Write a sequence for this structure.
């Protein structure tokens, strides 16, 4: 379906909501610029589990603020006081398991950075095959089951064909 404002055909899930169209056009399938952005996308996928993407993306600014702009270093240093703050923050999803996974994953990303130089280099070391990504992410990170990992690697552009064939962002082979 064409957008009446910019005349672009987008994936069906992204039409009719300006925030979803923004996400679709500038984030979905677009490789992140740095490790903090990778951490942000991983965290978003974790929080999205069991919820609609629209719910998460409409709270994007609140998540960004709550998690110190997704600074891996800062979040890795969160203590019980910060965890309690997050659990009481009504502007984000207050799921204890997801919050704990996010705090733990920040620490694990720092460990991966020591081993590979960056989170990005770690991800680049994994073959661009979904099963390989799922295996590595499950072993190294919390709350990264097969479906969350699938969405994460699609989100960051590691797996191709993330857009519908009619979409202006679809990459023709």
């Amino acid at each position: 379906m064409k957008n009446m404002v910019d005349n672009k055909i987008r994936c069906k899930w992204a039409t009719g909501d300006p925030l979803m169209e923004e996400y679709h056009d500038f984030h979905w399938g677009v490789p992140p610029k740095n490790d903090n952005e990778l951490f942000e996308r991983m965290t978003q996928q974790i929080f999205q589990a069991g919820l609609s993407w629209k719910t998460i993306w409409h709270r994007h600014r609140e998540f960004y603020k709550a998690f110190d702009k997704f600074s891996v270093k800062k979040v890795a240093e969160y203590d019980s006081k910060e965890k309690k703050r997050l659990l009481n923050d009504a502007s984000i999803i207050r799921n204890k398991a997801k919050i704990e996974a996010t705090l733990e994953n920040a620490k694990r990303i720092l460990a991966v950075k020591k081993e590979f130089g960056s989170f990005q280099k770690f991800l680049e070391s994994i073959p661009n095959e979904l099963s390989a990504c799922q295996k590595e992410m499950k072993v190294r990170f919390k709350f990264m089951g097969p479906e969350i990992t699938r969405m994460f690697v699609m989100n960051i552009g590691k797996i191709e064909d993330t857009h519908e064939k009619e979409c202006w962002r679809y990459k023709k082979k």
About this structure: The chain has a mean pLDDT of 94.
